[in-house]
Amino acid sequence: MLVVRTSVGPIILRALFSAFALAMGAYLCAAGLGLVAVANPPSSASARLLVLAVGAFNLLFFGFCLAFYLGRIARFRRPIFEVGSGGILDRASALDAGFVPWGEVERAWVRSFLGQRLLAVEVTDERALLARQGPAKRLLMGVNRRIAGTPVLVPLGLLAVREDTLLREIEKHLSRSPGSGGPGRVE
Questions:
Q1: Residue 81: CB atoms within 10 Å
Q2: Less Cβ around it within 10 Å: N or C end of the chain?
Q3: What value does the mean pLDDT take over residues 94-113?
Q4: Are 91 and 98 in contact (CB under 8 A)?
Q5: Which residues are CB-contacts of 71 (< 8 A; sequence separation ≥ 6)?
């Protein structure tokens, strides 16, 4: 069994970036409401509304990100990804898949997307996997599927394990998984 914990350095950097973006969102909201002096303030009501909307989006999105990363830092000793005899347990991101038994894993590979290395896991029955998720997560994992070809994407930069070690462990289990309709593939 391979048990993987959080790689703390990347999480701290992401938390710092989220805090900065959150502060920028607050500043944009204040500028949109005319609460702070700005060198070139938005002159029209629609421009102020746009600045306010962008600021509000930053507050919501990066507030969620900051809370997620701070929670991850507080629990850095807890495993966030496991590869065991029964399957994969993914708790690595806000869109984690949870437990995926080997019988549902078709193949796994590493891909890059927007400069980030991701472990992509193709499952045999995406509908069954998505049915186990909540409505918001189901929607966002569906977006992952359309963009990356699979709803299960694990950000490797958050895992305190070497990429080749992780792939080797997955390959070992996929090659002897009887429920997957034959040996799975790790690319």
A1: 24
A2: N
A3: 94
A4: yes
A5: none
